[in-house]
Amino acid sequence: MTTAEKLAKVKCFLLDMDGTVYLGDELIGDMKNTLNAIRNSGRKVVFLTNNSSKSACAYREKLERIGIFDERDGIYTSGMATTLHISAHFPGKTVYLVGTDALQREFEESGIPLVEENADIVVFAFDTSITYEKIRKTCDMVKAGAYFIATHPDDVCPVPGGSIPDVGAFLELIAKATGGKRPDVICGKPFQAMGVAVSQFLGLKKEELLMAGDRLHTDIMFGVNNGFFSLLVYSGEATREDYAKSGITVDLALDSLNDIVPYL
Ligand SMILES: [Mg+2]
Known about the structure:
The protein is α/β, with parallel strands linked by helices. The protein folds into two domains: 3-50 and 189-263, HAD superfamily/HAD-like (Rossmann fold); 90-186, Rossmann fold. The protein has ten helices and 14 strands. It has helices at 3-9, 31-40, 56-65, 78-89, 101-109, 132-143, 167-177, 192-202, 216-226, 240-246; strands at residues 12-15, 22-23, 26-27, 44-49, 74-77, 95-98, 121-124, 147-150, 156-159, 162-165, 185-186, 209-213, 229-233, 252-254. The strands form four sheets. A six-stranded parallel sheet has the order 5-4-1-12-13-14, with helices on both faces. Strands 6-7-8-11 form a four-stranded parallel sheet, covered by helices on one side. The protein has a two-stranded antiparallel sheet with strand order 2-3. A hairpin with a 2-residue loop joins strand 9 and strand 10. Helix 4 (78-89) crosses helix 8 (192-202). The chain is globular. The two termini are 17 Å apart.
């Protein structure tokens, strides 16, 4: 099948945000026009993030502030993927959640029973309000045999002026403190749990989804691992040299997402 034939099947663009549609607070090129062209081609736009510390509402506020959110669009976080994964596979099971207040509200709204001890499942999310007590409880319950879920694998989260420790860094700490316990499932990019959850949520088949992003080992491998159309953009992290050396084959590579317009 040609690239054009594959692209003709796509009904939804899953978009990484930083490095793909904006850099910090700056839109990349004429992104407003590009996103409108995607929407006007009859395709849905869904912004996708591994960051489980903020709610979809917080992302919507940012996207509205920089002028690129449309009422038809969706926003999907690894935290939402985790609640869907638990609701689908572990209905009624109790969860000890290490996460922000925003994520705790999402779990409560999903009807997932949250407990402080003897949980069936421990969920470790990006918790910018983490305490030593939460780390200790996590290790105790994981050692006691709780099913262990991490929302996403990123080691660090980029912030203005640098980066801060993210879930992946804490997973190393937990492994060291528990005799090598690792998550049973990691939901976010590049793994499949978020891909399965998002395709079910949207009611679309894998060939009807396109993943666009600037990171080879998260965004692009997420597309590859889930059988989505993979679109690599060189407007963020990955360079042409990185791609050439990666051993990964994408469906399409472009200077930026803006260059998709002639293909629509
Ligand atoms: Mg990115």
